[in-house]
Amino acid sequence: MLNNYHTHTFRCRHAFGTEREYIETAISRGLKTLGFSDHSPQIFPNGYYSNYRMYPEEIDSYFTTLRALREEYKSDIEIFIGFEAEYFPAHFNALIDFIRPYSPDYLILGQHYLKNEYDGFYSGAPTDSEERLKLYVDQTLEGLSTGYFTYFAHPDLIGFRGSDEIYDKHIRRLCTTAKEIDIPLEINLLGLGEDRAYPRERFWQIAAEVGNDVILGCDAHEPNAVARPDVLEKAAKYAARFGITPIESVKLRKI
């Protein structure tokens, strides 16, 4: 691995370690690029706060800290500053307006919740509902079609456990559209390393058939998760099973 764009910080409340520790781990393991993409703040109504993302008032420290480290380590590694963001239809424009003054280098889509979070459900919850599967595909494709997202993180998060025929119908539409609009899909190394429900084999069989560009993302929530050698070895074998050769880098879509 030469480039990782999926790295979190303590601000999301479920990651650990300092930004410096992530950077030094990346350098020690030979990375040329480290992209920070902590869970973006969201501007919700009525004082609602998520418990797994940075708060809006933390965005200044996020950019101030990482810009200083980017300058300090510029001879050793290239550092990008972005976000992993959700596409919540009622609030997406407000999110873009809020983060644009900071000139983030990129966004990756990580759709953990459907609808607008507070009125929806967790994408990874097991379900046999075709309606939920269709909503996941419709909402993520609508988000990707905005043109703001560089790639789609853990696109196989949706917890549909119904028939393969129904799953294939909707997931093939997701993969086909992502390819048409030139959005890479991520094999998520956190899920792979922890044997989570994702990466999901059937998803990657379909992506391989469609011919999607595929990127590896560490989804690092602790410094040691950056380009962890044993997980990278597991990822190489996993991708090879489907005839997938992951791409090394992506073209960042600045905000």
> Quick one: overall form?
globular
Straight-line distance between termini: 26 Å
Detail the poorly predicted runs. none
Strands, count: 7
Approximately how much helix is present in the residues? Answer: 25-40%
The overall pLDDT, averaged over residues, is: 97
Rounded radius of gyration (Å): 17 Å
Tell me about this structure.
With 255 residues, the chain is of the alpha/beta class. 36% of the residues lie in helices and 13% in strands. The protein contains 8 helices and 7 strands, in the order βαβαβαβαβαβααβα. It has helices at 19-28, 59-72, 92-99, 130-144, 164-180, 189-193, 201-210, 229-241, and strands at 3-4, 33-39, 78-85, 107-109, 149-152, 185-188, 214-217. The strands form 2 sheets. Strands 1-2-3-4-5 form a 5-stranded parallel sheet. Strands 6-7 form a two-stranded parallel sheet. Helix 2 (59-72) links the parallel strand 2 and strand 3 (78-85). Helix 4 runs parallel beside helix 5. The radius of gyration is 17 Å and the shape is globular. It starts with a strand and ends in a 14-residue tail after the last helix. The mean pLDDT is 97.
